[in-house]
Amino acid sequence: MTMLERSDWYDIARDTSWTPSYVTEEELFPPEQTGDLGITRSAWDRFDEPYKVSYSEYVKTQREKDSSAYSVKAALERARLFENADPGWISLLKTHYGGLVPAEHDAQTSEARMARFGLAGGMRNMATFGILDENRHTQIQLWFGHEHCSKDRQFDWVHKAGRQNQWVMIAARSYLDQMMLSRDAVSTAIMLTFAAETGFTNMQFVGLAEDAARAGDFSFANVISSIQTDEARHAQTGGGVLKILIDEGRKAEAQRMVDISFARSWRLFCILTGPSMDYYTPLKYRKHSFKEFAREFIVQQFQRQILDTGLDLPWYWNDLINEMDYQHHSYHLGVWFWRPTMFWNPPAGVTPEEREWLEEKYPGWNASFGRCWDVITENLLAGRRELTYPETLPVVCNLTQLPICAVPGDGWNVRDFPLERNGRMYHFASAIDRWIFEQEPEHHQGHLSIVDRFLAGHIQPMSLAGALQYMGLAPGEIGDDAHGYAWVERYRDPALARRAA
Ligand SMILES: [Fe+2]
Ligand SMILES: [Fe+2]
Question: CATH says 55-500 is which class?
């Protein structure tokens, strides 16, 4: 049978726009779902995606990716990687799967919105593949993570995290709701696919895959690398939409969407990926720090992409780059401190050798974060573990739902950025977070943070036990130090303790 070349039929097949006769154009594509910003329909015909793929090609490639991931997994099971891995690495897997599976799941809805309400045939076509991609990402990561449940109950959170009121998951849901679920097709394309996927998924899926390969976890490295190849394709929807917005004089709207999404995404990746790279990955497998990865994958690559499209860098660009020196260290300290509220066991990551590495990668770490860890270490050495648990609640940012924290010790820079609106006082971690809230107050103003809920009496009894129950942490799932505090023993050797000081 003679087959046509793809280039001979692709443009006709993908351009499935037609003129409706039973309903009006506006009924078929209501502006609140398309987000067309008043741009004429003919302008959308210029949408072009650089990565062309037919359905049969798509299915063939995806099948190969899946069979490769499953065969690597089967081989590694024989090598008993899970049983022999460092507990820090196991915690990294729990944060990744618990945090990412709900995002992949919700991304199917976002892609479906673009597949139905995108105004260009090519955009709808790409987004249809995007739905299938996100479905694959949800299922394969759900399976790869949750199957460890029989060995470690915290892996049940791979499946259940997305629906719990655990505080990191409240933060994640608030992000997913704002960026992915409550948006029209155009702003989804820009905020999710351009700003979040182009800007950040490389960091999680390529950066972490490098660490995974060095740690011998080829199963994890393989699955997340195969996910990134899908992301790199469907994220191009955003670039195509952005070009039309800029050509049609809507740069200001596009810029605002990028500025909102980029900062929101940064904070979430900061708490999920930052500690994973600088504290959870065993020292011998680390090559680059989180900051080095962030500078390569976020600052350099995204900066080039933003400027290439004709947009400007976000107004807060330098402030955000400065945060790469400290924000994830303070999130890590908070996660370890509030460890009973986590669904993974956070490793402290502060042995003498690890502290040396941290000081080398982040000069000044010992004089700031190190001083908090000094107090924790002293208390643990003296057998006063009870003093290493929190007694009060943190102040939580009303945008990100994450604690307001920054640099402790020398260089202290923690402050609240408050805003009073309609008689309610809101608190923010930075001027960036407050600015985002003010752009779309209707998205956030009715939301209660975990602390607001506690104070409003939603969490009963008002104790740690009540809080754990509210957060969905069942016995056997409550977090504790990943290494059972074994690292503290290193400091009983006076020579090592001096070296770290
Ligand atoms: Fe995905
Ligand atoms: Fe995606």
Answer: mainly alpha
